Amino acid sequence: MLTAIIDYESGNLHSAEKAFQRMALEVGAGSVVVTSDPEVIAGADRIVLPGDGAFPACAAALRASGAFAAMVEAVEVKARPFLGICVGMQLMAREGLEYQPTEGLGWIDGVVERITPDTALKVPHMGWNDLVIDTPHPVLDGVTTGEHAYFVHSYQMRVDTPSQRVAHVDYGGDVTAIVARDNRVGFQFHPEKSAATGLRMIANFLRWAP
Length: 210
Known about the structure:
Elements: E1 2-6, H1 14-27, E2 31-35, H2 38-43, E3 46-49, H3 55-64, H4 66-77, E4 82-85, H5 87-90, E5 95-96, E6 102-103, E7 110-114, E8 125-130, E9 132-133, E10 148-153, E11 155-159, E12 165-170, E13 174-181, E14 184-187, H6 195-207
Parallel strand pairs: 1-2, 1-3, 3-4, 4-14, 5-7
Antiparallel strand pairs: 5-6, 7-11, 8-10, 9-12, 12-13, 13-14
């Protein structure tokens, strides 16, 4: 079993790599590798797409790399379990509106737009927030409403199909935290920085057999 964390120059992946390796060892989920090699990605049993930065830059970098076609083959054709993290989750949307309209993967029926709290709360939304579970999902096994996750983002996904929003947080209004559809799931927060709750969700993803 191999989990591929896709490297497309979108940030430092060291902490994510270590967290996934730790939990893969704990649950017997094989090996974890950070890679940009299309052959490795296409042949992986699970795919993780991280992302830090602006939606248009991340989308362009991913599409310019051979990793993009390999990821789509693994996820859409071979139905491998997929996890998007932070901007990696946002890229699952139909479209992103950061700086300019940018096409997403279209895996989730939603649009990524700037967070606009209805109070004096600051943007970016940064720090710990309490998860509110909307829809049961295997990646949330053992996780309950009120557990914390760590967020750093200025844009959020507005999901048009309610069943595809698995969890949200309150930040001057609802902010999407987890989305899912078929063999694909996305976390707006950083599970590798979300203490025991985040590690539990990583372990759940590594055991997930959609």
